[in-house]
Write a structure and sequence with these properties.
Blueprint lengths: L12 H11 L2 H6 L3 H14 L4 H17 L3 H11 L11 H27 L3 H18 L2 H14 L3 H17 L3 H18 L4 H16 L3 H8 L4 H5 L7 H15 L2 H10 L3 H6 L3 H11 L3 H16 L2 H4 L2 H17 L4 E3 H8 L3 H13 L5 E4 L4 E4 L4 H31 L44 H5 L1
Antiparallel strand pairs: 1-3, 2-3
Amino acid sequence: MDIDYAVDSSVDPQVLQSRVSRILKLQDYADGFTGPAKVQRLLFLAEQCEGQDIALDALKAAHDYVTSHSIDLELYKTVIQRIRARAGDEYSENAEWIEQCDETYYSRQSDIEARLVSAKSALDQPTIATLEGEYGDLLFERGEHVDAMKHYMRMRDYSKSLDDFMSMTYRLVRCAFHSKNFFNVINHARKMESMTEAHHRDSLKVGQVRLMAALTQLILGKFDVAARALSKIRHEVISSSPDIISVESFGLCIALCSMASLGRRESENLMTSAPGFQEILDQSPQDVRDAILAFRAAHYGEALSLLEAVKPYAWVDYILSQHLSQLYSLIHDRCLCEYSSAFSNVSIAYMADTLNIKPSDLESRIVRLIQHGKLEATVDGQTNHIRIKQTSVKAHAFKSALEAAHTFLRDSKFIILRSGMLRHGLIKPGMPPTSFTPDLESQDPPGGEDHHHHHHQGGSSQIEAGDMSDVAT
């Protein structure tokens, strides 16, 4: 009897295009997002499904949202160009809307500039900080992210309170995240973490910064770091951040990252300890919920089949799509290693049937895992069996001792490095080893952020102690 093996870690765009057109409800998908994220998701969906009816529907939805909620002319023109006159005059370039959009922008700009002049004349620093933030927000809405960042950095110069600093950092991170300036996302997120730890402060804005930093780690391909960071995000933060990610998309991200990079036990502990994870799971697609439950129960064949069913959703997610093939391949490897660890000798045919994978693909994958040192096993070509090497207690103890020795050496280098930096005045003497309180008036932006201000003294010479462990290693 021929078996239809449904599980495949490869990504076939044509197959996924037709599957997306069949299963994705465009209105429900778009309703999960607001702001630039909504338009970005719709444009990416149209790009992925080019040639399908859903692609033009996504572009029309993006057009309708931009014309009713945005003043970003470049974004509007991008949508119009992508439609390419395929949807009638209603979706062609509208000179009247462009003129009205410009009037709204320049009117708000003139009002803010007039109030700024008045505030600077009165030397009213709190008002100046507020207005610089408003100016940055206006430019962010306009899509001029570089200029928006400059005004947010000017806001820093006039910020005196912790709340002002946190508001400025949130805006900087949001702007950097949407403009794909990921270095600045991580850099400013670390600064906010230092402030919140030192002052024991937490808020929605802090949670949103952590969310964007965690998603940035995922975009950069650091799946284990992303999984652990995403698990710490509270449900109320996720549900209040449709301008960043939808609850459904978040559930898919944390599910794929944790299954790809963490063991079954750690993945289960991570998800069960995550604040509000059950609520996130309830709002995720049914197949995602079932896949997570199957993975927890060690039903790997079922989990892989269910993940195959959610692949179209991940393929049109611009955060996950670029890593989709790698994520699914890692999940397959993880399931193979976890499943085989329960045996000392197992038939390849039996294992392939259980995991719903072609025997030839399974054998080649096992050989690759053995070659890369991820699976301690041998393949018996005569009997078509896999013989698993059981790790002895003695070998495990020796490995643990080596790891402890490496950790000791790393920490010793860290202590020596910190001592040297203290001696040469590169860090403050009273600075704790894991965090510090940044000086709001002397901190510098990363290179190239603000060309109007040149405060290269004080803050630029202070290195965050939390980053020194990387140097020491």
